[in-house]
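Exercise 3.2. Students should predict the tertiary structure of the chain below and write it as structure tokens, then compare their answer with the key that follows.

Predict this chain's 3D structure.
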Amino acid sequence: MSSRERTLPIRRWLVIALGAMFLLPALAGAVVFASSEFDPAGEVARELSADVAQWSDPAWQAEARAAYTARGVNFVLVDATGREVYRSVADPLAPHDDRRFDLSVRRVTVPAGTGASGQSQPAGTAYLYFLSGPPERIWVVPLAGLTTLALTSAVVAWFLDRSVLKPLAATSRAADRVAVGDLRVVLPGSRVREVAQVNSAFTRMSAALSASLHQQSGLEQERRLFLSAIVHDLRTPLFSLRGYLEGMETGVADTPEKRAHYLAVAKEKANALERLIADLFEYTRLEYLDLVPTREPLDLGVLLRHTAEGMRPQAETKAVELALDGPREPMETEGDAHLLTRAVENLLDNALRHTPAGGVIRLGWHREAQNAVFSVSDTGPGIAPEDLPHLFAALYRGEGSRNRRTGGAGLGLTIAQRILIAHGGDLTAANQPSGGACFTASIPSSGTEPGVTESDGATAAASRAQERAPSG
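Answer key:
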């Protein structure tokens, strides 16, 4: 329905319809009755008053007699002295045979004065005799009323059919289609407000139901893929762990060196399985339990430095430099320190797994407008362009440089983004012009704009790490 189409409540429409059905026929009858010639002497009286100067003219008398008698009016003309000037019939009071009519007499006195032509006119008196009663075509009045009533009823019936019955019938048919799964609903408009509101609500309901079913279908597909990926990721380390344990049990590892190697691999697979289960648990909390972060004041710079120091041993093991670049002043914000630490750890762990020995991972932070912004960039191979749109999808791992051989469950980046979104921020990814990936995160900040920055690259520790051979 057009937004400019005016609607009224159904009660008001009923009042309008009933008023039209009663008033219009009565008005039509009154108009017809008023337009009928029920006073034949009225026009004759006006003409006689205008022609008072010609009352004594025989030619005028003959012409007036013929004209007025045809209208059913006889007359007697008397001058100002009371002398009779002319009468149209010998006995104007003679009885008549039509009992439906009564003989009426009207006296018309014409004073002396100046006529319409500017000439003086004498005074006189005219007596008009005519039959009064119902006109011959009095039946036209009820006929006009009944005809108007029929037309009004037809218009009211057409309006009710167009504005009430057809829209409700269309709503009923739409409900039957929705019941069998057809959600393509198009309902006609109506000038009755209640009907228009019902159809509008039904259309919105159908659209919302269609969107809900579409979303449910997408969620179901995502759930199936999610479960399939979980089963695959859990099965891989379990099979490897079981294989190495069976090798030790059956005596395949028959030397101390082999047993040590088998134990080391089994421990590595167990650790990978533990990380996978922890990621799945954290993702479930964030995605399905609507986890609300604890809002507490914290210094983001201190949190980033502390998290980076915890990851420094792993960086040294891989001979990767871990450089920090942030302001000296505190960068106050509010958030959940545990969840934010987890997000930063996931970003640093992702960078470590994709940065070759001798590379650099830079963790920087600064204030930007009303946000606290930090970024993790590396000198790895970067992200394939086809992988960028799907990078934060659960259990997604691209091909090439960022594949399953690098480890992980494909949930670390998803968890990091969910944590930042829960804090009112966001996490984005891009490739640097010089090579490598860069992840940029932002959360609402508090405090003043910092000015001076410092560079804490931990160069000495990274140099020592570069002298060591990479372990993976």
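Discussion points: The CA atoms of residues 173 and 212 lie 22 Å apart. The longest strand covers residues 102-110.
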